[in-house]
Amino acid sequence: MLHIVACIKQVPDTKIIKMNPKTNTMDRASAPAILNPYDAHAVEEAVRLKKRYGGTVSVLTMGPPPAVKAIKKCIEIGADEGYMISDRAFAGADTLATSYALTKAIEKISQIKPVDLIICGKMTIDGDTGQVGPGIARRLDMPPLTSVNKVKEINLEEGYAIVHRKLEDGYEVIQSTMPCLMSVEKEINDVPYSSMTNMLKAARYQPVIWAVADLEDVERTQLGLKGSPTIVSKVWAPTKPSGGEMLEGDAAQQTEQLLNLLLEKKELFAVKGGSGVEL
Amino acid sequence: MSEKFDVIVVGAGPAGISCSYELAKAGVNVLLIERGEYPGSKNVMGGVLYRKMMEDVIPEFWKEAPLERPIVEQRFMMMDKESAVTVGYKGMEWGQEPYNNFTVLRAKFDQWFAGKAVEQGALLVNETVVLECIVEDGKVVGVRTDRPDGDLYADVVVLADGVNSLLAKSLGFHKEFRPDEVALATMEIIKLDKKTIEDRFNLEENQGTTIELFGDATKGILGTGFLYTNKDTLSLGVGSLLSGLIKHKIKPYELLEYVKNHPMIRPYIAGGEPVEYLAHMIPEGGYKSMPKVAGNGVLVVGDAAQLVNAIHREGSNLAMKSGQFAAEAVLLAKEHDDYSEATLNHYKTRLMSSFVGQDMKKYKDSTHHFDKFPQYFDKYIPMVNKAASQMFTVDGSSKWEKQKKIWRDVGTAGEKFKLARDAYRAWKVMK
Predict the structure, then answer these.
(1) Regarding the domain with residue range A2-222, which homologous superfamily does it belong to in the CATH classification?
(2) What is the pTM of this model?
């Protein structure tokens, strides 16, 4: 029976968030907190694998108390259990410190039930780094499988998993040993409308919450701000590109105009180190 | 497998939440279903929350609820195109505990209020639409939601699904509402800094003003506008009976634009940034439009029961009270293990003998009256403005002459008679 841990995060909805023009930081109060969209796909994939192979899905998050809401959302999707690590000592963590804290929590979950597979979303929409998943894999000495857009097969007895990894021009098929960690792309699945049974379960659910003191062998200097070597030198909001040229006329006319434009601006096709495209 | 609850409440607005809160507090197994992302996300009102009825549910709520400003001043503006006659009252007794009423933003407030019901033990499920009531042997036994395995059962279903209650309609409790039974209101939340609001409205910190707008705010169509002060936003809105909008071929947002540009309103909102646009229907048919409110295994509360006092811009307070009465009736039914209409009708009896029913009856003809005789809004309000202008313009003519002129301007003897008749009629429907 598979035991899958899905790592998730509650994030501000960056689609509608406003930037504070003075400090150049995100005004977190201006946007509602949501489950990181990539993580919803990670949880959904875990639930699908559970249905295929049998087993349990646990979700894990690090965050302040309101992040319980994100765990409940995962229960709605079909997760069985939720764990949350919440402590002031975790605050201000970068990806290095976050992966350390989550690793400690996964070790604790493994004591309850050995973990066969860890699934993460590709990245969070507030940080956009995609580093925490591989970081956890490295710390747990597991193969990190990033950009997964299909889980072809899992064979727990033989101890391998076969997945498709998304590439720019297609995909590659990879076989990995188990346990392993996958970070998944959005197109791996569609998250369906949750069933009433799961909605009721989520409404009643209270996750297990651990503080630092509940975890074992924790090196406190590796937590939170103290354990974060990342230096943010500058943050700015990108300016919206303005101007541009609008082509008018019917499709044929527009095509002709575009073609002429492209012929004029051959530099657009220049390949680095190459001689460009012959037109 | 379908679960069974003691009570399912459909809709997390003031009525549904109050009902759930009271039931959960009494130990009843209650499920509250909300279609929005969270309670309040789809709920709209101008923004006045009445202290008394809220306090009846949660004592001293103002100590923790997300409120905007306690209202210390209420103004009424009778507007013409370029003028207004304003009356009002400001009193410091409203600025201290226990307060009279508050401005609120529903998206925040309802979320908090629903959280209190959950604290009492109510189960809240969001983002779920109830498609219909499940009826067996002439009795409502549950609801069908839009989710997979979405049928749920209960001894009583409380319909708090708002104006235009499709669920009450599908049970045959009311017909499709006519355009003269519902108003359409649109509003904007306009951001301004705190200090500017306090300066413009002559307020101190933690004080608020409400201004009700009559007459030209709705271009003389039956309806009202409002301008309320929040902490660092203003709520400006306008609502008219659907029938009036149809008759005058005016789109609701055009009316809102008109008010925003009105010389009596423009200076208040100058420099403000609209941050939200909201629109909602308001049930204004009054007593005569009320549906059947109790049936076998079912109760109807709040806007779904048309509980709005349009004249006094009250609604959320009536909704809360109705939610409480519904909870009371459910507890009585539970005690007797009898969820028939006969027992649940206790709700109707309590509702109609309370101030809710009394006020609904008192103003039963008011909306229809003002709808039928548009002269109050499109003729008499401009007349009052003209009279005030005459009286207060110092131009060397004596006050006697001015009064004579004002009286002359009312028109012929026939028109004077009409004015007297309309005044009497208005008094009659309001008395």
Answers:
(1) HUPs (3.40.50.620)
(2) 0.88
